[in-house]
Prior knowledge:
Layout: H1 2-17, E1 33-34, E2 39-40, E3 50-53, E4 59-61, E5 66-72, E6 90-96, E7 101-110, E8 119-120, E9 125-129, E10 141-147, H2 155-158, H3 165-172, H4 180-190
Antiparallel strand pairs: 1-4, 2-3, 3-10, 4-9, 5-6, 5-8, 6-7, 7-9, 7-10
The chain binds zinc ion.
Amino acid sequence: MQRKLLPVFVLTLSFLVTPFNPAQGAVKYAFPVVGCTYTYAHSHHNYPATDILAKKGCKFVASTSGVIDEVNRVDKWSGKTNLGADRSGLYVSMIGDDGVRYYGSHLGKIADGIEPGVRVAVGDLLGFIGTSGDARGTAPHLHYGISWPTPPDIWWVRRGEIYPWPYLDKWKAGLNAYPAKAVAAKKAKVGEVPEQVGY
Ligand SMILES: [Zn+2]
């Protein structure tokens, strides 16, 4: 009997000494566009992000569970001023339970009830794909960014700090992939609010 019980004892022990890491297991992920066909490249102009091309009105959903961070329902972009803060047009950002900020912009409409502080589950509707901001006149797409939480209006961090496409590839295939480590590494390298340079 002693020999039979030993493996059970070892298993129990390893469970007790393994720290629970919410970023590696409990958190689930989903592709941020549902109900439509889409395409995206493994590249982006000027800084890390992914543009997911899909028809106007396609659904933008929460990549994971978390809390809504910043929301903009008014398109203030003008080709004359082309201010960095306005290029996004309508957008939603959320802070995932993994501590990562997820952001989608150029939306045509924000979903009802999506306001800062609102809790969302993975797959919850956040908005609809459009051409707001400096996407006006271009093919409708979701500009998708992954970064870390900052004080409000730090748009040059919010728009994206690591390339989302490696994670999108996994989520599309129904697999989990965890951006928290890569986000923390980039933040440690450049600081929470780096100086805005370039575009
Ligand atoms: Zn983009």
